[in-house]
Write a structure and sequence with these properties.
6-stranded antiparallel β-sheet, single chain, elongated, 8 helices, 245 residues, alpha+beta, 27% helix
Length: 245
């Protein structure tokens, strides 16, 4: 029940109650939420209060409105923290999703490449390129490109990459790439899915796709450069202001 004497506005209380039902799976994803009239009776509040609560939940990504149909529980988003690296696997598991990967490419690239300089490769070194389609609960949500020094990380070509690359790095080399590191670089942009990503993710070509370019360091040296294409409707990014210079 709502606390009528609380300093917390009623619409915030309604919002938190509904949010809890979603997070505890009482209201499951893709199911239609009760009508405004039903919610008014359930919480004993006005229509304006219900509408404000629902609007906030839509804004936060918990609900989505479908034109002419109603309001539905959204599929959970995968939260990535921009100034603190978390692996795709960790991000999914925190959101209650099952992570997996389909390896599309494992190759060695010789010659010129735009990542050679940023990775500080020696002249005789090559690049290991890994391309993977990342899934959350078996649905494709991200296309991931990773570039490593062949001399230092060539062993990845013979590893099972359907799980976490970060876990492999920690097991093989004892390095934790999720540790906070101010040297890491992240550039986030947005583009339309277009025909290629529309087909890959099974969405409209006009659907937004986040493009995250990364350069991840450990011990003062770059470990890998990455470029991820992430389905806009399935990801959200958190900026921790304490990490911004």
């Amino acid at each position: 029940m709502l606390n009528q004497n609380s300093t917390i506005p009623l619409y915030e209380q309604v919002k938190e109650s509904i949010k809890q039902k979603i997070e505890q799976k009482e209201w499951k994803e893709n199911t239609k939420v009760p009508s405004e009239t039903e919610l008014m009776k359930r919480y004993e509040v006005s229509r304006v209060t219900v509408r404000n609560a629902l609007a906030l939940l839509v804004e936060e990504g918990y609900l989505e409105k479908k034109q002419g149909i109603g309001t539905f529980v959204s599929r959970p988003r995968i939260k990535k923290i921009i100034f603190h690296r978390s692996s795709f696997t960790q991000s999914c598991e925190k959101g209650g999703l099952k992570p997996s990967a389909q390896v599309l490419k494992k190759e060695v690239i010789d010659g010129k490449n735009l990542y050679r300089k940023s990775l500080q490769l020696a002249q005789d070194d090559k690049l290991v390129h890994i391309e993977r389609l990342r899934m959350a609960d078996d649905e494709p949500v991200s296309l991931e490109h990773m570039y490593f020094s062949y001399q230092e990380y060539g062993f990845l070509l013979w590893e099972d990459l359907e799980g976490s690359v970060y876990a492999i790095m920690k097991k093989r080399l004892g390095i934790d790439l999720t540790e906070k590191n101010r040297e890491n670089r992240n550039i986030l942009s947005v583009e339309k899915a277009g025909a290629r990503f529309g087909k890959l993710f099974g969405v409209s070509s006009s659907e937004p796709v986040f493009v995250m370019e990364t350069l991840v360091y450990h011990g003062g040296k770059p470990v890998y450069a990455g470029k991820d294409y992430c389905l806009g409707s399935r990801f959200c990014y958190e900026v921790n202001s304490t990490d911004v210079e």
